[in-house]
Amino acid sequence: MNKHIVFAICGCLFFVTGFSQTKNVEELLNEIEQNNTELKGYQSFIESQQLENKSTNNLPDPQLSGYYMPFGDNITGDYTEYGISQSFEFPTVYSSRNMWNKSKSQQLASAYSTKRQEVLLQAKSILLELVFLQKQKTIETERKTQSKHVFDQIKELFAKEQVGLLDLNKAKIAWIQEQFVVKQIESNIQIQMSKLKTLNGGNPIDGISSQIVLPIEIGTIENIWQDKLTKDPQLQELKANEEASLQKIKLEKNKVLPNLALGYNYQGVSGSNYSGFFGSISIPLWNSKNKVKAAEANYEYQQTNTKVITTSLYAQFQETYNQ
What does DSSP say about strands 260-269 and 79-88: parallel, antiparallel, or unpaired? Predict the structure, then answer.
């Protein structure tokens, strides 16, 4: 029971105390963070998503077109025409999309922080379990030694016919039971070490200390909650979702502006030619219809979702704090 209370307090204070319990724990968790396969894969995923988001703000490819018309009934000679053009959205669209991409990068960073917290909290729980088992093993090993000593004494007394067979068997059973308890603890230690090795990317972990000092003082509930609001990855992810949806509104409003195109054109017939620049502008009638409204509705949803989840998390936090 005490072990579970320790884990509950550890989870409650995870955001406030970080990994500062001991240098040993901090080093071990840093090692796991560097080697964990899931976190490495997630970092690669985030990098790919960020590059993909940046690619959405690229200019379209330039367009080159040409005409050569030697056939037909003409008296002026063959007709030749070519042109090159570059189309682009209204300039403010690119700055708005860039801000949107930055907010999406913040979303990805918050999601990674949440994943990192899950992995390291799991690792910390296993470390605490290992410390508990190591201390338990020390106690049970001492008990095993004592029970063996008692059994040897009872055996000597039995040989002198000073105690009966029942007492001898009781002492022997007590010794056997302690041996079993120690072996079971050793087996549990190996299981936890295997879990820790998996979290560490398959690399074994050495140097786990049994002298982890846990904090015994807890701050006020409001102070911890305010700190949690600024550091909790899940809450930060909700804020990032809100910011991204707000930037999406600004982007969609800018995309209502017309697209532009500039280019160079050449036309020539039998030694006579014309060349010069041309430009075009789109008429934004259909493409952006309802997109601003959709972005505004999504922003309202994100705001409501943040309030609902924050309220729920605060209720859970109060319960954990009181426990």
Answer: antiparallel
Q: For helices 37-55 and 91-159, what crossing angle results, to 10°? A: 180
Q: Which residues pair with 264 in a beta bridge?
A: 84, 277
> Which of 243, 235, 287, 296 shows the shortest CA–CA distance to 113?
235
Topology of domain 2-322, per CATH?
Outer membrane efflux proteins (OEP) (1.20.1600)
Task: Give the confidence band of 222 by pLDDT, cuts at 50, 70, 90.
Answer: confident
- pTM of the entire structure? 0.69
Q: Tell me the one-letter amino acid at 97.
A: R
pLDDT at 75 over 50: yes
Give the DSSP per-residue string, 3-60: HHHHHHHHHHTHHHHTT-S-HHHHHHHHHHHHH-HHHHHHHHHHHHHHHHHHHTTSPP
Of 44, 52, 42, 53, give the one whose Cα is nearest residue 113: 42
Q: What is the largest CA-CA distance in the chain?
A: 138
- Dig out the tokens for 180 from the structure: 């079993």
C-beta of residue 153 within 8 angstroms of C-beta of residue 163:
no
Q: What is the pLDDT of residues 278-312, one digit of tens each?
A: 888 888 888 878 889 999 999 999 999 999 999 99
Which tokens hold the place of 291?
């997109």
pLDDT for 146 equals 92
DSSP 80: E
As a whole number of angstroms, the distance between CA 228 and CA 234 comes to 10
pLDDT single digits (tens) 254-273: 888 888 899 999 888 777 88
Q: What is the pLDDT of residue 245?
A: 92
Matching residue, tokens 């690669």? 44
Judged against a pLDDT cut of 80, whether residue 179 lies above it is answered with: yes
* Contacting residues for 102 by C-beta, under 8 A, at least 6 apart: 247
Residue reference for tokens 């991204």: 244
CA distance 67 to 86: 18
Element (H, E) at 69: strand 63-69
